[in-house]
Amino acid sequence: MAALTIKNVRKVYNNGVEVLKGIDIDIQDGQFLILVGGSGSGKSTLLNMIAGLETVTSGEIKIGDRVVNDLPPKDRDIAMVFQSYALYPSMTVRENIAFGLGVKKVPKAEQEEIVARVAETLQITHLLDRRPAQLSGGQRQRVAMGRAISRKPSLFLFDEPLSNLDAKLRVEMRAEIKLLHQRLKSTIVYVTHDQIEAMTLGDLIAVMKDGVVQQLGTPQEIYDNPANLFVAGFIGSPSMNFIPCTLKEDGADGVQVQLENAGQLMSLKLPFSATQLRAKMGTEVVLGVRPEQITDLSSAHGESGQSLQCKIDMTEPTGPDTLVITRLNGANVTCRTHPREAVKVGQTMALNFNLSKAALFDAKSGERII
């Protein structure tokens, strides 16, 4: 396996469109990097540049201690798993897995040994004599993964490999990929638009937008301390609540905001000091609060918080909890409550606001203030 270094990498097409605007990422040998973002964020372009399927306009890509900018894909010691599986339809599963080994002129007996070991690892031994058309989507993806790992490359590249699968199978395959990484200790770069995949699979997440890495960090770092409104809204399901409000001083060094709900005005104290936010007093900001930080009083489990009476506009039962939606300062706010505590639509209920992990964002730039 090998480390990966991406240094000030840019991609500009002939028509002048700049798709990647100076990407800097370092991952260590054996780490699992997730490139996550919406359509047009540049994540797939970056993956293709690592693979050698796209040229680098400027900057440097290193796999291990080799700069690979000008190397063709076959010389980069990589293996790629595609969204579309990319299996050879006329070949059996056995032949598909062994194809790369044959190209590298691995002896036949060794090929058979490797194929048997890979098939056992992925639990597809019983499928070795079938062709792709006889397989389910999940089985095809396992074969595609088997073809990749049979070669023991320095770097695995996954391009949205689960997006063609149904929801249940996606969860199962996600677990398979995570277990595979733990067994192989392999270096992986994985592209997805699904933030749940990003949170559950990655050691590191690079959140991308408009060709720029908005934030690079561990899943927990990005969830707890998002750098800006985009990251805060993209990572987390349901996403972070964003409440527009104006900062006001409260006592000697306190800070508060006023919230309007169903025509009623309420005050909410923030866990910040006025000294910290002196320059922002009287200005509009965005208060970011995760849904699990606003709950019914019984689910607060004695945690410190402030109770506000809020009118409920909608409920969404999910089984283990019920999401209730209220409106604060004109914004929909989602709260996690215990099913037995949730009230009916139109009723008022006491909600506990635990703001110990709340964030403040600049209303204009979207950047985090504190």
Q: Which stretches are poorly predicted, pLDDT < 50 over at least 5 residues? A: none
Estimate the helix proportion, in percent: 10-25%
Number of helices: 8
The tally of beta strands, per DSSP, is 22
Overall shape: elongated
Please tell me how large the radius of gyration is: 25 Å
Order of helix and strand elements from N to C terminus? EEEHEEEHHHEHEHEEHHEEEEEEEEEEEE
Strand content: 25-35%
Report the mean per-residue pLDDT as an integer. 94
Beginning-to-end CA distance, first to last residue: 39 Å
The chain-level structural class is: alpha+beta
List the main descriptive attributes of the protein structure presented here.
single chain, 370 residues, alpha+beta, six-stranded mixed sheet, four-stranded antiparallel sheet, 34% strand
Q: Would you mind describing this structure in some detail?
A:
The chain starts with a strand and ends in an 8-residue tail after the last strand. It has helices at 43-51, 93-103, 108-121, 137-149, 167-184, 195-201, 219-224, 229-234, and strands at 4-12, 18-27, 32-37, 58-63, 66-67, 78-81, 155-159, 188-192, 204-209, 212-217, 241-246, 248-250, 254-261, 264-270, 284-289, 294-296, 306-311, 314-317, 322-328, 331-337, 348-353, 359-362. The longest helix has 18 residues, at 167-184. The protein is α+β, with helices and mostly antiparallel strands. It has a six-stranded mixed beta sheet with strand order 6-7-8-3-9-10, sandwiched between helices. The protein has a four-stranded antiparallel beta sheet with strand order 2-1-4-5, with helices on one face. The model has no long low-confidence stretch (mean pLDDT 94). The protein is built from eight helices and 22 strands. 37% of the residues are buried.
